[in-house]
Amino acid sequence: MTHALRFTEQDLRRLAGARSFERGLGYLSGVSRLEIGYETITATVDGSDAYEVELTEDEDGGLTGWCDCPYGQDGNFCKHCVAVGLTVLSQADSVPQQRSAAASRTRLLDGWLESRTREELLALVREQLAGDRDLRRRLELRAAAAGEDTGVVRERVLSLLDTRPFARYGYVEYADAHAYGRQATEAVTALRALTSSGRAAEAVEVAREALRALGRTYGEIDDSDGLIGEVATGLAEAHLEACRTARPDPVETAEWLVPYLLGEANDATDIDLFDYRDVLGDPGLARARVLVVAAWRANPKGWAEKYLMERLLKADGGNVDALVEVHAADLAPDGRTHLVIAGELEAAGRAGEALEWAERGLRETVSEWGPDSDLVAFVCERYQRADRLADVVAVRRDLLRARPSLAAYQHVRTAAHAAGTWEGSERVDALEVLKAAAPPKSDLWYGGSVLVDALMDDDDLQAAWQAAADGYADQRQWLALADRIRDRQPADALGVYLRWIEPLRKQTGDSTYERLAELLLGARACHRALDTGAEFAAYLAALRADQKRKRKLMAILDQHGL
Fold first, then answer.
1. CA–CA gap between residue 409 and residue 401 (Å, rounded)
2. Residue 44 burial (CB count, 10 A)
3. What residues have CB less than 8 Å from 64, skipping those under 6 apart?
C-alpha cells in the first residue's frame, strides 16, 4: 500500500479548468486545518467565507473534490479545491510520513477505545449524542430497528425519505441533494438492521413503502451525482435481502412486484423481475406471467409493459413469433421497431422473413425525417449480400427523392458506383432531383442549395461555379468555391472575396474581425497568383486607413501579417 500522492498539478488544472486554477493560486495562504489521510484530504479555506474542502484519491489515481462554497456545491472542482491540492503537492515529500502518522493515530484511538469499560464508552457516546442531533437520530433509528416497535421504524424510515425539509421551491436542488442523500442512506441501514435482527418479514413491508415513497419524489430531486439513485438501489437491495430471508408468499410477492415494475416508482430503482427468481419460485413466476400478459394486452404500447413481456419471453426461451407480436403491436413511425423484429427473426435463422419486415418498414415509414438510418443500412446490406445492387440503388434513389440532402446524394453515388451506373443517367437524374429541390433564390440567405454542395463533393468545380452563378449558392458556398478554385481561377476567386469583404467593414466584433482577416488572406493569395501584389498592398492600406479606429481589428490584422 503506497502512501505517496497519486495526483499531479496537471490533474488539478484539468479538473478545475484554466480560470478556476489561476484563481486557486490566490488562496494558498488561506488554507488551514489541513489533514492528509490515506485516501481523503480535508482542509478549511478562507475566502469570502470559511469553506470546507475534501479531496479524495482512488487507487487508480483519480481525484475528486468537494467544497461547500456555492460553486463547489454545484458539482464543480472549485478554486478552493485547487488551493488545497496545490498546498498538498507542496508538501509531497512529507505526505508518506503524514499518512503514516494518521494511520498511527487511528490505531492509537482504536486501542484506547478497546481499553475503555462499557460504562466509559456509554458515557462517551452520550456526550456525543448531546451535541450531535443527526447522530442521535441515526442511533435512535438503529435502536428501533433492533427493538420490537416496527411502527417506530416505519415512521422514521419514511421521515428520512421525506424531501419536504430540503425542497425550497417544491424541488430538491443540487446543493441540497447531498444532505438529503446522506439522510436517506440511513433508511437503507435501518431496513438491513431490521432484517438482521430477525424481523425480515416486517422489513419486507417497510421496504415496500420506502420504495414507493422514494419513487414518488425521485423526479423532484436534482440527482446529477447519482447519490439518490444509489439510495434507491440500496432500498431495492434491502427489500430483496429481506425477501430472501423471510420467504414471503411467492404469489402475493408477484402481485406486489409486477404493478411496482409497471409503475413510475421503478424509474428510480430499476428493479428487474428476474432478480426475484429465487424468491418467487415457479408459483410466483407463473403468477407474474399472468399479470404481465394481462397488463400488456391492456396497454400494448406501454414501454414498461412491452419491456416486461420481452423479458418474460426471452427468459422462456425466446418464442420469436410471440416477440414479433409484442413489437408489432406498437410500430415506430420511422421503422425502428420493424428493424428490431427483423433482428429477432434473423437471429432465429429466418432471414427471408427478416428482410420482408425490414422492407415493410421502409414502405410504412411515416416520420417526417424518413426511415431509421439503421433500417435502411440493414436492407441495403442484405441486398448487397444477395448481389441485388440495382435494388440498393433504387432504395437510395427513393430516399434522395423523398428527402434531398448531401448525405442521401452520397449514398446514391456510392451505390451506383458499385452497380456501375453512376456515370450514366444516375448522376444526371440525381442532380436534377437536387436542382428541383433547391430553395427559391430569394431564400438562399437562409442556406444554400444541396446542388452546389453535391457538385463540390463530386469535385466538379466548374459545374458548381456555374450553379452558383445561376443563383443556387449562398455566402458559405461562394466562399468555399473561391477557396477551391483560387489556384486555377484566381481572378474569379478574388471577386468573391472582395464582394464579401465590403459588408464586413461596417460590422464590429472579434468574430467579424477574424472573418475579415481570413477573407483578406484569400484575396492576397489571389493577387499573388495574378502577380498584382502592389494592387493588394494599396487596397489593404486604404482599408486599414478607413478602419484605423477599430484597434482590435488592427491588432488582428497585425497578427495575420496583413
1. 9
2. 15
3. 55, 56, 77
Name the helix (H) or strand (E) containing 63. strand 63-67
CA 551 to the chain's CA centroid: 42
Q: CA-CA distance, 278 to 285, in Å (whole number)?
A: 10
List the grid coordinates of 471.
443563383
pLDDT, average across residues 61-69: 83
What does pTM read for this prediction? Answer: 0.61
Half-sphere exposure of 362 (CA within 13 A, CB side): 21
- Say how far apart CA 203 and CA 120 lie, in whole Å: 33
500 and 483 Cβ atoms separated by less than 8 Å: no
Q: Which amino acid type is present at position 327?
A: H
Quickly count: other Cβ atoms within 10 Å of residue 463's Cβ.
16
Q: Which residues pair with 36 in a beta bridge?
A: 41
Determine contact, residues 556/517, Cβ cutoff 8 Å: yes
Q: Are 171 and 222 in contact (CB under 8 A)?
A: yes
pLDDT in tens, 167-192: 878 888 888 888 888 888 888 988 98
Q: Measured between alpha carbons, how far is 434 from 439 in angstroms, rounded to an integer?
A: 10
Q: How many other C-beta atoms can be found within 10 angstroms of the C-beta atom of residue 401?
A: 15
